[in-house]
Write a structure and sequence with these properties.
Distance between the termini: 41 Å
Order of helices and strands: HHHEHEHHEEEHHHHH
Strand order of the largest sheet: 2-3-4-1-5
Strand content: 5-15%
Structural class: alpha/beta
Length: 303
């Protein structure tokens, strides 16, 4: 307790109670190798994307066949933005067995956001020794050469599989963005799977796999899984609004955004209160409109 207006005593009480907790937590900190943290970040991202996954068996089977088929060219997974490429890459990389599997999702971490840092991280993981960080070359061409040298260490007993998701997220002026540095013919016992919306010049001769529009049946199953995970249910008329919005685009991202809005609807909500956009941008607009209502954050803050 403290006297009215005695802010000094209040502040000291808060400090004394929180400082002990913070210091106790700080004593548990441990230095971890940067490479270990990087790998863990991408593994965690993949696990989150694949935690609730439905359908896409055709694409997953095609990727699995590529990994064990002996093909020496890279495989490029094509799909429009929001079609679910990252989830498919996460699921496929999680199902890859019997090989050294390396996966990076472009933009998820700073070291996976530019070509030089990405290659450096891949080289370190391929060498299985984060302690070599100081020995890595600094220029991009030397990093690319080191990357291929590391790939060439693959054997029949130790094959190497590399998954690179969303390579189109690299900046156009990034030295890695063209992918001319990636060999058209990979070393033996090596497979590389990439996903993108547009094919860069260096991958024009790669194998391609189109990620088809998400079927309505699989979309319904995925929506059911999300609702079950959120412990929510929709009235038939509300569910029809969500599925109708998805059918206009066929994009998994659109379905996800529509679900995130619909999960907030009370069962008694009138149709005019169940607002969804006609596409991804429209659904985001509807989200912003809802947040800008006075009953939420208000227009001033949201604008």
């Amino acid at each position: 307790e403290f006297a009215h207006g005695d802010i000094k005593t209040l502040c000291e009480a808060v400090y004394s109670r929180l400082a002990g907790v913070i210091e106790d937590e700080a004593r548990r900190f441990e230095d971890r190798p940067a490479l270990e943290v990087e790998i863990e970040s991408h593994d965690r991202f993949a696990e989150d994307r694949a935690r609730i996954f439905r359908g896409r068996r055709k694409a997953l089977v095609a990727i699995a066949d590529y990994l064990c088929g002996g093909e020496r060219r890279p495989l490029v997974l094509h799909g429009s933005s929001g079609s679910g490429k990252s989830a498919a890459m996460a699921k496929a990389s999680g199902e890859a067995k019997g090989a050294v599997v390396i996966r990076r999702f472009i933009g998820v971490t700073p070291d996976a956001s530019t070509g030089p840092l990405l290659l450096r991280s891949l080289c370190l993981q391929l060498s299985n020794d984060g302690g070599l960080a100081n020995e890595m070359p600094s220029d991009f061409q030397s990093l690319a050469a080191t990357f291929h040298t590391r790939l060439a260490s693959a054997t029949a007993e130790r094959p190497i599989v590399v998954f690179l998701d969303a390579i189109d997220q690299l900046s156009p002026d990034d030295p890695a963005a063209t992918f001319t540095w990636l060999a058209e013919v990979l070393p033996p016992n090596v497979a590389v799977v990439l996903s993108t919306t547009t094919t860069p010049p260096g991958l024009q001769r790669a194998l391609t796999l189109e990620l088809e529009p998400f079927p309505d049946g699989e979309a319904s199953a995925l929506l059911d899984a999300w609702l079950e995970d959120a412990r929510r249910a929709l009235q038939p008329r509300q569910r029809e609004r969500v599925t109708a919005a998805f059918e206009r685009t066929g994009l998994v991202l659109h379905l996800k955004l529509a679900f995130e809005e619909a999960r907030r609807w009370p069962s008694f909500a009138e149709s005019e209160d169940c607002v969804l956009g006609d596409d991804v941008a429209g659904t985001i607009d509807a989200l912003i409109y809802r947040l800008s209502k006075d009953s939420n954050h208000g227009p001033v803050l949201v604008r």
